Amino acid sequence: MENGSIVHIDYDLYNADSGDLIETTREAVAQEHDRHEANRTYSPLITVIGDGRLIKGFESHLEEAKVATDYEFDIPPADAYGERDASAVEVMSLQQLSRSVRDPENLQIGGMVEIGGRNGILKSFRSGRASIDFNHALAGVTLRYKYKIVKEVTDRSEKVNTLLETNTGRDGFESSFDGDDLTITLPEYVSYDQNWAYTKFGLIRTLRDHVGVQTIIFREVHAPMVADEVEDDSDEDLSSLSVAQLKERCKAAGLPVGGKKADLIARLSESSSNEEE
Q1: Which stretch of 63-77, 85-99, 155-169, 242-256 has the lowest confidence by average pLDDT?
Q2: How far is CA 253 from each of CA 6, 17, 222, 238, 267, rounded to the nearest angstrom?
Q3: Rg for the chain (alpha carbons), in Å?
Q4: pLDDT digit string (tens) for 120-144?
């Protein structure tokens, strides 16, 4: 695959030495290894080849990969999360540890701790002192990847929407082209995101690098509330509304706007039922 290609990847990641499953995008594999998470939606990883978001060994292998081909290969620690560093295991007094973490009451052996912006694992308590391992959890581990590129995004509009959604974690964007100029209509809830200004400048660079657009216009639309829109809509088919419209309904009702379309519909339906009672 060429650098800059936007692809969907199904993969299974194993500890090559123990054979234990570490991560997967495939629900059937998670179930097979008793690692299934009921509240998770299993779907392919979406990434840009050569974007530097994946570990070095995986990025290098993807450069030679083709769509719809199954691959299996190992990555040594040097091309993954590095070798273990003994100096990254630190010892401190329990008093110092308690002062350094947000919730000292919930400290437990094997649990994650954050100290000074660094994440580590609490390894032991002994003689009034605590041992904390700041190595990455997969440091020193040889990784085994089984993967397939299930799709390459080639349509220009789909590239834009894919980059918007993967870089913001949100949906409901609309885009249109005029030659190489791009207009993006934002879902209204984005306007209330305090991090949007920072996110927007990163998106501009990403869209120019990977889609080849020139002028980029971000368009906000704030439609007025119409009295008729707040009439009893208990018989309304919420599934006919777009995700953006459902999120606007949730926001107006003071409900959370996160989740997929089915979550939004369930939330609105439950709220309507409670009001009727």
Answers
A1: 242-256
A2: 37, 52, 17, 14, 10
A3: 24
A4: 999 998 888 999 999 999 999 999 9
pLDDT of residue 226: 63
145 contacts 24 by C-beta, under 8 angstroms: no
Q: Give the whole-angstrom CA distance, residue 269 versus residue 126.
A: 53
Residue 217: per-residue pLDDT: 95
Q: Cβ neighbours of residue 228 under 8 Å, at least 6 residues apart?
A: none
| CA 59, chain centre distance (Å) | 18
Instruction: Tell me if residue 244 falls in helix, strand or coil.
Output: helix
DSSP H helices in the chain = 27-32, 56-62, 94-100, 156-168, 196-211, 243-252, 261-276
Handedness of CA 244, 245, 248, 254 (dihedral sign): negative
Taking only the tens place, the pLDDT of each residue in 29-54 is: 999 999 999 999 999 999 999 989 99
Quick one: DSSP state of residue 188? G
Spell out a b/e string for 174-185, using b for 16 or more CB atoms within 10 Å of the CB, else e.
bbeeeeeebebb
Task: Give the pLDDT confidence of 160-209 residue by residue, as tens digits.
Answer: 999 999 988 888 899 999 999 999 999 888 878 888 888 899 999 999 99
Can you list the positions of beta strands (E) in 111-236? Answer: 112-115, 118-126, 129-133, 143-153, 174-178, 181-186, 216-220
d(CA 186, CA 197): 13
